[in-house]
Design brief:
The protein is of the alpha/beta class. The chain has nine helices and ten strands. It starts with a strand and ends in a 5-residue tail after the last helix. The structure holds adenosine-5'-triphosphate.
């Protein structure tokens, strides 16, 4: 039994079957990649896991509890954190202030913007944020304006902000989209480090096969809304069905 169990999930948008009978089991403390061509249903599936979409039928169970019917905030409190394609950071604030926000939100169960004014007097929150910046190799950037960071560093900060909430499942939605190769490689190294050092499960959607094969322990290929195959990376690489569906090659 995986930490995340998706069973017979269906989702239609009008006449379009975006997800058809999706089954997915993500084992605890592994990195599970979900790949597939454009329009295969990857983002729709991810949205069903975090409460942004509700499946028409089927179940989504995290650590023995259904996520269906819960708000994105409640699902986050259950231990699922999501990193979006575009970094979701506060560009007007410093790197340190950004890191403090999710820690405050987790502690208080909500976050109000005026809390920023008194944030620096919160010694425990400050210590946790500083410590996470050290873990992310960003301590030297603590006073930088978040807006002035590179795309790779913004993503590093955002991943750190997610981790500061101590999630058990980290969902990554194309974490290296739009990055230069050097930033992509730094992000791969960071995610490998997170995998090795933390008690965490990672599910990743990614188009860049270099990223997928560097990180994934298990891969599910979606095609036209349904799982085509699930296997280990080595077997996925050589699978003619995958090449045909995903790479557009004939077997
Ligand atoms: N809100 C929506 N309303 C109508 N159709 C939608 C909606 N969201 C997604 N779709 C459609 O559902 C299908 C699956 O889309 P989805 O974004 O999940 O695919 P994807 O695999 O994530 O694609 P990509 O790799 O291009 O991001 C597509 O045909 C898309 O146009």
């Amino acid at each position: 039994m995986g930490i995340l169990e998706v069973k017979n999930v269906n989702k239609r948008f009008g006449g379009l079957q975006a997800l058809g009978d999706v089954n997915l089991s993500v084992a605890e403390n592994t990195c599970h990649a979900i790949i597939g061509p454009n329009g295969a249903g990857k983002s729709t599936l991810l949205n069903c896991l975090v409460g942004k979409l509700i499946p028409d039928t089927g179940s989504v169970v995290f650590d023995g509890n259904s996520v269906l019917g819960r708000t994105p905030f409640e699902i986050n409190q259950m231990g699922i954190s999501r990193v979006f394609q575009t970094p979701e950071i506060f560009t007007d604030l410093s790197v340190l202030e950004n890191m403090m926000i999710p820690i405050l939100a987790k502690r208080d169960g909500s976050f109000r913007m005026h809390a920023i004014e008194n944030m620096m007097s919160e010694k425990d929150v400050l210590d946790q944020a500083e410590s996470m910046l050290v873990d992310m190799n960003m301590a030297d950037k603590r006073n930088m304006h978040a807006a002035s960071m590179s795309r790779g560093d913004k993503r590093r900060l955002e991943i750190g902000m997610c981790l500061s909430q101590q999630p058990r499942l980290l969902l990554l939605d194309e974490p290296t989209a739009g990055m230069a190769r050097a930033d992509t490689n730094n992000t791969i190294d960071l995610l490998k480090q997170i995998k090795d050092e933390r008690d965490i499960t990672i599910a990743i959607i990614e188009h860049d096969m270099h990223v997928v094969f560097s990180l994934a322990d298990r891969i599910t290929v979606l095609a036209q809304g349904s799982p085509l195959v699930e296997d280990d990376p080595e077997n996925i690489k050589g699978n003619p069905k995958v090449r045909e569906a995903y790479l557009g090659e004939t077997a």
